[in-house]
Design goal:
It is a single chain. The protein has 164 residues and is mainly beta. Helix content is 10%, strand content 40%. The chain contains two helices and nine strands. Strands 2-3-4-5-6-7-8-9 form an eight-stranded antiparallel beta barrel. A hairpin with a 6-residue loop joins strand 6 and strand 7. The longest helix has 11 residues.
């Protein structure tokens, strides 16, 4: 267990790697299409739920903490390369609470990796996360099938994205 403060958060916005980078990425073919990550994901350890949608060329999402009735954070600038997602997150009401996320696709329905606050990241930054698991608060995402409907607050989040 880490001695640094544990802050359970996550939600997602994902910027996709350029087509040339995606074409060169190694890993299962289904990983290269970011739409395959749309849906509802659940972390059984933290009991957090993640709502992911592809919107405007990006995989975006929002997350709630242990079933809260509102979103806590979002991901953004995520890149999908092969079977790895690297990106950033920030809290919606306190954007200065921000950090990085690393997830590896173990199967089409299971992501494993972790997150760290920006102030606890490796000095090399985001790209170094896969090589430094000691910086990460571990997490596992399991796809919820069939996907439950999105709560109203998550629909409002995605509507706001659509209307800028």
């Amino acid at each position: 267990m880490s001695s640094r403060p544990r802050i359970f958060m996550l939600a997602a916005a994902t910027k996709i790697a350029p087509a040339t980078e995606r074409a060169e990425a190694k890993g299962p073919a289904h990983v290269l299409d970011p739409r395959a990550l749309e849906g509802v994901w659940y972390n059984p350890e933290s009991r957090n739920t993640y709502y992911m949608r592809f919107h405007g060329g990006e995989l975006r999402g929002v997350y709630c903490y242990r079933g809260d009735l509102s979103g806590l954070a979002e991901y953004y600038n995520l890149r999908l390369v092969g079977d790895v997602i690297l990106g950033r997150f920030r809290w919606l009401k306190r954007p200065r609470t921000a950090g990085y996320v690393y997830l590896k696709l173990e199967s089409k329905d299971r992501l494993v990796g972790g997150w760290c606050l920006q102030s606890y990241a490796p000095p090399e930054g985001l790209e170094a996360l896969p090589h430094h698991p000691e910086y990460l608060e571990q997490m596992t995402w399991i796809r919820q099938l069939p996907a439950p409907p999105l709560p109203e607050w998550a629909e409002r989040y995605f509507d706001a994205l659509a209307h800028g």
